[in-house]
Amino acid sequence: MKLYTYFRSSAAFRVRIALNLKGLAYEPVFVHLAKGEHRRPEYASVNPQALVPTLVLDDGTRLNQSLAIIEYLDDAVPQKPLVPKDRLARARVRSLSYLVASEIHPLNNLRTLQHLKRALGQSEEQIATWYRHWIADGLAKLEAELADNKGKFCHGDAPTMADCCLVPQIFNARRYDSDLAPYPATMRVFDACMKLEAFDRAQPAKQPDAE
Amino acid sequence: MKLYTYFRSSAAFRVRIALNLKGLAYEPVFVHLAKGEHRRPEYASVNPQALVPTLVLDDGTRLNQSLAIIEYLDDAVPQKPLVPKDRLARARVRSLSYLVASEIHPLNNLRTLQHLKRALGQSEEQIATWYRHWIADGLAKLEAELADNKGKFCHGDAPTMADCCLVPQIFNARRYDSDLAPYPATMRVFDACMKLEAFDRAQPAKQPDAE
Q: pTM of the predicted model, to two decimals?
């Protein structure tokens, strides 16, 4: 398998974790988002959405959207499930995943920040304030969801898709110096994840394209 | 079942369509987002994420996040699948769903627009420009994905979760007078959906709380 990835992309980071948790090897192909390489015509034929990540299966099939890729991997390799088998547990893991992937991340990804700068003329400081606003808004919701969490991870004592989403989000929050003290339940899960080699090895600084 | 809903919420609209497609009756409970009713303490006990929709099952179990609810309904009621059974088809339907739910909608939902106004001091006209920018960005991606579409709907000749996402997004685009001419493949699917009673009956103007 080939994974089109960028060290700092949260969405690619989620998939790198999932591949590591499943024990699946992949060949990385680097797409430099900050240089706009995802908008080149040759990448449009790889991913019509012009986004990272794209997973290319050995038969050439291309999959995109990080959570669709993770669900695919879970369908294809049922060992160590990333989405539990129980119907209500599945709904919960997906809900926590979407909370990060739909309510926080889109407001803070690179193209949103670039648009705030270029089209709205926001300063670096105003952009950082925007960033931290959505981190605080979203992590408060996640903390409320995890308040009664009895497990080591977001759902139970084994990592799931929700943890694949939570960890990159905390990396982003730290990069923008967000105050994480109000989210102890969330940070407990983060710390548990980072003790696992699958999460640690997937982090931005440990990628070959890290700057 | 009870559905906490708001007529204009795209996420609630998606779930209303899915419930209709599955032939499942529900009792609506109205949460007026524009009045901030989702931020009231009593709603926090219903949905820790303080978002609409929430689906309450007959045994009192509460589910949130629209796509997690739709996947749950599909797990619980396998007839008329909203996510196909084939592994690659599942990945595609999910990818198209997330393209709408994670790449377009979060940038244009009510709390984002309110923040642009209140925190960034953007005018109504500037906000409308922002709105249309993300519609154009996202629908161009969706159109690229649907360019070779042979089916009546986003994936094949029966509606799926992707269609539950596409239709509310087009309603939003029209509300902000976006130019939809560049997206003929997308609009063909939209028109096919709107011929179905399940989609038509779920639209904002036909809800009891419509204004």
A: 0.98
